[in-house]
Write a structure and sequence with these properties.
Elements (H helix, E strand, L loop, with lengths): L24 H8 L1 H13 L6 H17 L6 H10 L1 H15 L7 H18 L4 H26 L3 H20 L4 E3 L4 H6 L10 H29 L6 H23 L6 H19 L1 H11 L1 H6 L4 H25 L3 E3 L5 H13 L12 H20 L3 H28 L4
Antiparallel strand pairs: 1-2
């Protein structure tokens, strides 16, 4: 009988070599220098990790096409036009990013935005409330509406599509009831409405305002990156080298000061744009740097795994829909400020469609678990760049809708192909 501990004749007694553990790509990048970044970029492309690359390429193509058609497209007045009119729908899109990260949808944001503008008008104009008190009440009402819809979805189990579709119809009816027979209430130029209006610019439109914002953005990014690097060093995990941090900061500095220079050639930075940027920074921090943000990504990626990890899925869902309602209300106030009136146009269904399109075009996945709030900025920038270009060329609204629809479809196709590539490479 053969002893199992004694190797048989002709066999190799040496054990097979151990398979080395996978190396973090960031370590290779740091070791190889700039060549490592090229290899890392190729690895991400092959793995379907496209990030914001498709939308950035799309923006460049859009700008080139319209600038060749009309040289006035790159004038400062057009840039200021885009910066101002992108804010209202952009704020709606920020709230939708939170919902889309769960793999859900909120069809009520357009109606909630119109209702919020009507509620603010009734409180501040009809009942003579203090403008800022009326704003707080309006934003609280938007958050409460979102929480109500989220509760019906999370606790009762009614599909989010049905709940928010019902909200789309019901809140529009409430808006019409508030506006009364006239259908429109003119807003007073004070409080937040004045701040968001087209006549209000950061530091009263002085040149220093735009450059001050650019400097704050650059310094803030550099400080944040250095603090993150220090924490990762202390924890003994891979970190980005200082050279890369300086390169990223320098790239932002070039873009930020270039935008500031262009806007200063017109009137300056619109105040509503400042609010939009603050919202993006705060929400980005919440999603990427807090436990709550990680819970949102976890629930969007795998609900069952989130439950097993002890995450209250229902509370995350309710809170996310409350956030969506809050930003729908804020976006409604911004949209009303563009015309200094609260009317039926505030609940235009196209606002909903464009807000969803902005989030998706900017890179937020419809399948949940992937995206950033900066998607709202990139997506709405694409849409408003198309709108302003078509307006300058004198093209009709039907062309605008067809082009925007085609861009939206292209974004979803890219997202689907990216997810398929990631699955095939084992990274999904």
């Amino acid at each position: 009988m053969t002893d199992p501990l004694v190797p048989s004749p002709g066999s190799d007694p040496t054990p097979p070599p151990a398979v080395p553990p996978p190396v973090d790509p960031r370590l290779l990048v740091r070791q190889e220098g700039w060549r490592g970044y090229v290899h890392e970029f190729r690895r991400k492309i092959r793995g379907g990790e496209l990030g914001s690359l498709p939308v950035v390429i799309g923006l460049v193509i859009i700008w080139l096409i319209f600038s060749l058609k009309d040289s006035a497209y790159f004038k400062a007045t057009n840039a200021e036009f885009i910066a101002y009119y992108m804010v209202g729908l952009g704020l709606l899109s920020v709230g939708l990013v939170f919902v889309l990260l769960l793999g859900e949808i909120d069809l009520s944001v357009g109606s909630v935005s119109g209702l919020s503008a009507a509620l603010y008008a009734v409180l501040s104009v009809t009942h003579h409330w203090n403008a800022w008190v009326a704003v707080i009440a309006t934003l609280a009402a938007g958050a409460a509406i979102g929480a109500l819809q989220g509760t019906i979805f999370a606790k009762i189990g009614v599909p989010a599509f049905v709940v928010t579709l019902a909200g789309f119809l019901a809140w529009q009816g409430v808006m019409l009831w508030l506006l009364g027979s006239t259908g429109t209430i003119n807003l007073e130029d004070k409080g937040l409405n004045h701040y968001l209006s087209g006549n209000s610019f950061f530091l009263n439109g002085r040149i220093i305002g735009a450059y001050l914002l650019a400097a704050i953005a650059v310094v803030g990014m550099l400080v944040g990156l250095l603090l993150l690097q220090r924490r990762r060093k202390a924890a003994g995990v891979p970190y980005r080298p200082t050279g890369e941090l300086l390169f990223r900061t320098g790239t932002l500095a070039v873009g930020a000061f270039l935008i500031a220079w262009v806007l200063n050639r017109a009137t300056g930075v619109p105040n509503n744009m400042v609010l939009f940027l603050v919202v993006l920074v705060v929400c980005d921090f919440v999603l990427r740097r807090t436990t709550y943000g990680r819970k949102i990504f976890a629930v969007g990626g795998n609900i069952e795994a989130s439950r097993r990890a002890g995450i209250s899925v229902s509370m995350v869902r309710i809170s996310v829909y409350s956030i969506s309602g809050f930003f729908a209300a804020l976006g409604g106030l911004a949209i009303a400020a563009t015309t200094n009136a609260a009317g039926q146009a505030g609940a235009d269904p196209n606002n909903l469609m464009m807000a969803i399109a902005a989030a998706v075009i900017g890179g937020t996945s419809l399948f949940g678990g992937r995206g950033r709030v900066w998607s709202a900025l990139l997506g709405i920038l694409v849409i408003e760049s198309i709108n302003s270009g078509l307006f300058m060329l004198g093209l009709t609204l039907d062309i605008q809708y067809m082009i925007t629809g085609a861009v939206l479809l292209a974004a979803v196709v890219v997202d689907s192909l990216s997810r398929r590539t990631q699955k095939s490479s084992g990274r999904a």
